[in-house]
Amino acid sequence: MKKKEFKSESKRLLDLMINSIYTNKDIFLRELISNASDALDKLYYRSLTDKKIKVSKEDLIINLAFDKEKRTITISDTGCGMTKDELESNLGTIAKSGSLKFKEDMSKDEKIDIIGQFGVGFYSAFMVSDKISVISKSIDDDSAYLWESEGADGYTISPAKKDKVGTEILLHIKEDTDDENYSKYLDEYELKSLIKKYSDYITFPIQMMVTHHELKDEEKHEYEDKKELETINSMVPIWKKDKKDIEDSDYENFYMDKFNDYDKPLKVINYNVEGMCTYKSLLFIPSHAPSDYYTQDYEKGLALYTNGVLIMDRCSDLLPDYFSFVKGVVDTDDLSLNISREILQDSPSLKLIAKNIESKIRKELEAMMKDDRENYNSFFKTFGVQLKYGIYNNFGQDKDKLKDLIMFYSSKHEKLISLKEYVQEMAEGQDKIYYAAGSSVSKVNDMPQVEQVKEKGYDILYLTDYVDEFAITAINEFDGVKFINVESKDLDLETEEEKEETKKINEDNSDLLKDMATLIGDISEVRFTKKLKKHPVCLTSKGDISIEMQKVFDAMPNDLGLKADTVLEINEAHPISDKLKKLYKKDKDEFNKYTKILYCEARMIAGLPIDNPTEISSLICEVIAK
Ligand code: ADP
């Protein structure tokens, strides 16, 4: 029979699995049991919506068997099974998104990271097996097929015999090595404890033949071994258990298994609601973003169960976009079992549950920010952008729900602080929330406009994400205090006296300034200022669009024609001002060159592109060569 090759990425992953870089090999069993449970869920759900399929709950079983001599473990289920095509596509490929890129020079930890991001899945069985045979009969096909593989060099698929619909996975367990004891997986006690540890919550019975040591003859003290088929797992889903009976590790194992994460969750929210709507829910905030989180491929949603049956793997209506990172399960009896997905979306119960969940997550995050800042910082680093995006999205309709959850770097505290914290600690006489936008904290720190605000003793929020200023603009004010960009021309920090002086200088030199503006063209005004300390020039903006916002618009694929209204400000106390005034009287040609160079400097500091670099470069050389 012709051997088929695994897709190249799958092959690389398999190599890693076979060479066992993953230290926790035990998890192979929970992966296979979890697949079996999914297949049972699928079949049962089909039977509810398709009258032709008859299934009774008692027939939905996972069975585990092992043979010490032959070194095999068999995991069988009576689930939906796989057709020949499904065997091919499900077991022949992993990482369907194709984004799994292995680099040769990656460290072991990075590789584990990547594997983790895609869920170790079925392939994890290769950590402990040197041969895997899968016999499956699909609910949609009368024939059964056998898929077989001995590892990275390929697999075969051939016709097989199987009476009942479902899947049987036969693992041939590896021989022991100096470092690894694979034989432990051929031990009844070990298998039982692995099921208990990782798969206890599975809602279908996981059955296994279990040996009982029974007293045969009391007088002679004779015992005999009796074998009995037993259900090993308690079958109570974790979200239905009493909270006091659940250990942290139970939550963690459940989360990692159910949501294919290699890391523990950052936060677990387990809560039940009774009243207008009744449901149990178990929610998780991941400790890191899934690899596809910030892409189009990411699907938000919570697993939705009703009457113990999985209705939907990812019910997106249960989560608003700004909390799309939350994973979890919702179980309610308020929805009818065979409800269609379209009707489900409009169901008032579902809407009510969704509203409840939204507010619960928000309260939990608020509490975390208040009481557990370290974890909140870590959360915010990962998902803060999503919250800020949520603020300005949909015309800012959710801003009031989210504004207490966001944080920005504070120049005074040199760490992230909330808007509330900023406002509470405002200096005497301060009536605005100052912010400065730029691509990094150090770049913002170097901005000429930041200097003067700091000198006044005011804290400045540094906006370093592209969404930040849009979010701030949407919020508009916090506790009645308005925001102001330090680069805004309206920044009103000068004393009356200074204002008078500035006004006079600008009036006295109005011709010079007008000529500069005309020469530059792309600017609404040039003015002298007293607010700059060391820097000779800076660019500020008038109106609603700041320079940082313009950069975001410029980066968009379609030109919206949105431009900041910019002002070139020249430090009146800097020697360059006198030089300009002198040149303006004596040497117009030289004055023009200086104007162009200074404008270019201001653009550079603002991080804006220079349209005519060659011209500016020759001008600079001309001037310095003198
Ligand atoms: P995942 O479970 O994360 O999708 P796996 O590699 O574990 O990834 O499995 C790949 C696919 O193979 C599953 O999504 C499922 O469609 C199919 N599959 C695996 N095991 C079974 C099974 N016991 N019964 C039916 N389908 C299965």
What keyword list fits this structure?
alpha+beta, binds adenosine-5'-diphosphate, 626 residues, Heat Shock Protein 90, single chain, Rossmann fold, 4 domains, 6-stranded mixed beta sheet
Give me the secondary-structure category: alpha+beta
Rg result: 33 Å
What ligands does this structure carry?
adenosine-5'-diphosphate
The assigned CATH architecture of the largest domain is 2-Layer Sandwich
For the termini, the CA-CA separation is 84 Å
CATH homologous superfamily identity of the largest domain: Histidine kinase-like ATPase, C-terminal domain
Q: Give the strand content.
A: 15-25%
Could you give the topology of this structure?
Elements: H1 8-18, H2 27-49, E1 62-67, E2 72-77, H3 84-92, H4 108-118, E3 129-137, E4 144-149, E5 155-160, E6 166-173, H5 188-199, E7 206-217, E8 222-231, H6 248-258, E9 265-273, E10 279-286, E11 302-306, E12 309-315, E13 327-332, H7 341-346, H8 348-371, H9 373-392, H10 399-402, E14 407-410, E15 416-418, H11 419-424, E16 432-437, H12 441-445, H13 448-455, E17 460-463, H14 468-475, E18 477-478, E19 481-485, H15 496-508, H16 510-520, E20 525-529, E21 537-542, H17 547-555, E22 565-571, H18 575-586, H19 588-606, H20 613-625
Parallel strand pairs: 1-7, 11-13, 16-17, 16-19, 20-22
Antiparallel strand pairs: 1-2, 2-6, 3-4, 3-6, 4-5, 7-8, 9-10, 10-13, 11-12, 14-15, 14-17, 18-19, 21-22
The chain binds adenosine-5'-diphosphate.
